[in-house]
Amino acid sequence: MIRHVLRRTGVATLCRISARTPRIRMMPPARLLNSATSIPHVSHFLADTLVPKCTSCGITLQKTAPDNAGFYIEPKPPSVEGKAAKAIKSADKVFSEHFSSLSDEDKALLLNGAEPDMIPTINAAKHKAKSVPASEREGRQCLRCRNAYHRSAFDASEYQVETVSQVMNRIPANGKLIYVVSLVDFPMSLDESVFRHRSAKSMQFVITKTDLFFQTNNLASRYGLQFFQDYMFRKYGVPRNQVFVVSGKSDWNTDTFLDHVKDNSFFIGSVNSGKSTLLQLVAQIAKKQRDKLPNARRERAKQKQQDGIILNARTYAAARERLKMWAKSKAENGPGASFMPGFTRGVIPLEISKAITVYDVPGFSGESAAHLYDFLSADSIKQLQKGALFHKTGTYLSKYVTAKEGQVVTVGGLFFLQVPRGCMFQVRNVINHKVHIFSNMEKAMEVWKHAKDPEAVRGLFLVDHAKTDLVKHTVPPFDGSFDLVLRGLGFVNVKATGARPDPKNAEDLVVYLPKGVAAISRVPISKYITRTLSGRDKNGNVLRKEKWVQLSTKEIKRYTGKEAFFEQILPTQE
């Protein structure tokens, strides 16, 4: 037996070399074995191969306790005979029988020069039924996710939202952060408590849902990107090249963003910020890029698929088939996405390429924030999360409703804004529900809580009055107009018109919010992302307001950080 001591990088390692067997056993030093900090971070991909997880929400699966989280029902193996029988249409069966009975001359006449393999046969249908995609064989969903996808069944107790600290503690110290921020309630979806764990300058920021605010990608990239880069740089010192604007739904700038994604990146963000939807699209774009690489087998499969589409003689059928394949590919290559807050429950790894792996983590929420499903139904949440189109409902050219002193403005009961004495407001609604005006607060409460005909007001209110209380808030003073922004829901633009009220008799602007719902008063975001009226003519002269529409030039403002972009709307101390 020969004993050697190898010295490499200053660490002595004992090796035993046997004369009979050339095997070498490497023994690490005892100080490394006893040190917990020396154990490297275990790859989530390695963990997933050992412990099965739900492909939609990322929770660890189990088959023993139906009432516990992660319960999974093992699917029965599909019957090939039964599946093949379903795949064969009666018309195809009759056609196949008649076609096989024809002579060779009649077959050639019927084909009219087409290849025989272009005709669908029963054998082809059976073969298609036998071939089960790998994603169907390997994809596993917990019972909660299956009920959500296929039955639209939701249990609020299964959709618990974690705090910022809980989510950040899941992420290893060497993990890179990509902060996904929703434009719907910006900047409320940008939680500054995240910066207690990591510096904002070390993160990448992605502004999502831009398709709700801009008509085209060109406008989003030109005006939207400019504002958000200005804002993040002026307020947090974030380099401009670390800020992106994308749309996971419309595929805007996703390929550009993908070029800047680094290995071991973790996508973080508030609930319903669009993280999972963005990751689905990122996975799809990455797959398309891989498919562009030369591969003979893939090219043959693609050609066969295209031939199948061509057989659908009508154009709309081919388009529908392409959309179906696109949606299926997104679902197979990315995490599950849902309008319900708290859908993602675990860390979900996603392999972008052989060199890049990214991770989806649960969305977080403020510790005092209310859960939407505490007082909203699943259908109401789904409706609100679809959002409203800002370029149609939120600009100075959009339609508005007028509210006079004493009247109360509401959108589904999400807020009750009372117009002060001597004031008149123009209200533009950018929340995906209709706006309604009551004559006074007493009438609004009477209809909301004690409607004589509940069916008549069923479509008016989204909030269940029996599940929440209203809290009185005071809106900070504003000049001209402001955006009343509700966390995760959208905003309404409020513009004061007419003469200014006498300061001696002026009343506070009061808004009533469901308990736990947070709101801010924001400088109208339209000033920074769209061309608005400047209030000056072409010579730079200040115009009277009644002449703005006819004579005012248009401008888009740059954010300088010299004035506050928003103020908190705080509960009134009584």
UniProtKB/TrEMBL annotation:
Domain spans labelled CP-type G: 161-367
InterPro entries: G_CP_dom, Mito_lipid_metab_GTPase, P-loop_NTPase
Keyword list, A-Z: Transit peptide
Database matches in PROSITE patterns: G_CP (PS51721)
Gene Ontology CC: mitochondrion
GO molecular function: GTP binding
Keyword field contains Cytoplasm: no
Presence of the UniProt keyword Transit peptide in the record: yes
Functional note: May be involved in the mitochondrial lipid metabolism.
Protein name: Genetic interactor of prohibitins 3, mitochondrial
